[in-house]
Each structure stands twice: as C-alpha cells, then as structure tokens.
Design goal:
Radius of gyration: 22 Å
Order of helices and strands: EHHEEEEEEEEEEHEHEEHEEEH
Number of helices: 6
Number of strands: 17
C-alpha cells in the first residue's frame, strides 16, 4: 500500500506539495471515487487512479543507460563539479542514482536506477560482474604484465586486486575487464606497473554494452530484455 500523494509524485505529477494541490482541486479519483485526502492508502497495482480525466500508469523502477562524458561526477550532488544528474531531467521523480561510479575524466557506460536491491547485487564483488574498459596509456607494456593482471595487481596501498583480463589492442591501447570498483582502480593498476592511463572509457557493465548510437551526454531507457539480462546476471 502507498499514500496517494507519494504515488502521484512518483508518477511524475509534481512534488508532494504540487500533488496535494491537485487533490485539493478535486482532480483525482480512485476507483471512480473522488479523492479528498492526500494520505489515502492505495494499491498501485490494483487501484484505478484517474488524474485530470486521464488514467495514470505506475512504474516502480526505472533503468537508464547514460553515455557519460568527461567532466561530470557520478553523483546527484557535488559542490564543485557538474554531476550526471544534470544530464537526465525528466526522470527526477524516480529519484535515480548512479549504480557505481565513473571518475570525473572517465567516459562511457553508466547505469542509473532507483532499484536499490539490483544495484547492491550488481556492485557486490561476490557476484563477479564484469566491467570492461577501453584504456589508452603511456609507458611501456611488457609481456609479463598480462599474467600479472590475470593474477591480480598489488596497488600502492598494498591491496591485491581481483584477477583481471587484459587484451592488448596496440602498443598503448587495451581492453581491461575487472570485477570490482575500487577508487581509481584501473588507473592505479596501470600505475603499479609504471604506466599512466591517459584515456578511459567503460564499454560494458555485466551483460550491458554501451549503445554505439548514444552520443556523449545522451541516454535512453533500458529495454525490457536488457533489464531481464541484468536481473538474471546478478542471480547467476
């Protein structure tokens, strides 16, 4: 059960204050009965809610793929930098949050949702969710580094990363797949081997692949099939 003012806000009819005005103006009906109290408890799945003559539709969760550009923090608020929330406006009423984070200068696939349970499962290292990054770097890549990545890299603070998979694309370009997301992890892994990351872009997150049609700063809702892939992946 849910309060009707919360339901209406969640459906995008405005803030709690704004939807209270809609109710006060006698524009909301529940199962053909005029709603007069904003604390009325309803069942979003069963009750028919009519607002201003039109039937409302309830969606509990939303899943968004963003092609994050550099210069944005993966957050809903930051006192200094621009945040990814600024790029996505019409879903504010869902109160989405970034599932994981990309650094300020890192680009690529960022998932945003309000599904806390799914987010927790996808971010847990125990679930072994792959995240593949396209990396450009300076420095010399030595053949032995491949086996070091595969066995785990010891970072400057002594932390041993989980095994990673690297595919060298050119002398200073590679795809790196990891299953955790420590602070600046990819950069620190390369730095531990005397290399420096100069460009970083996340290409995959679990079963999701960055949509090649999404320009930097653009986003779209996940398809039903993509959501199902995510849910099945985290349960595997």
């Amino acid at each position: 059960m849910m309060r009707i003012d919360k339901y209406l806000a969640h459906c995008g009819y405005g803030s709690r204050t704004e939807v209270k005005k809609i109710i006060k103006n006698k524009l909301v009906f529940c199962n053909e009965i005029l709603v007069t109290k904003d604390d009325l408890k309803i069942n979003p799945e069963l009750d028919e809610i009519i607002v201003e003559g039109e039937r409302s539709s309830y969606q509990q969760y939303v899943y968004i793929m963003l092609n994050k550009p550099a210069g944005y923090i993966s957050s809903n608020y930051d006192p200094i930098h621009k945040v990814t929330k600024e790029l996505i406006k019409e879903f504010d009423h869902f109160q989405t949050f970034p599932v994981g984070r990309l650094d300020l200068d890192t680009e690529g696939l960022l998932l945003l949702s309000n599904d806390g349970k799914l987010a927790h499962d996808l971010l847990s290292p125990r679930k072994h969710v792959d995240k593949m990054y396209y990396v450009e770097f300076s420095g010399t890549y030595r053949e032995i580094y491949t086996s070091l990545f595969e066995s785990g890299i010891t970072l400057e603070d002594g932390y041993l990363t989980m095994p990673a998979k690297i595919e060298l694309l050119a002398d200073n370009k590679a795809n790196l797949t990891i299953q955790e997301g420590k602070y600046h992890q990819v950069k620190r892994m390369f730095e531990a081997l005397d290399m420096k990351v100069t460009y970083l872009k996340r290409m995959t997150f679990g079963p999701l692949h960055l949509d090649p049609n999404l320009k930097k700063g653009s986003y779209r809702l996940l398809s039903d099939d993509e959501v199902l892939l995510l849910k099945n992946h985290k349960e595997a």
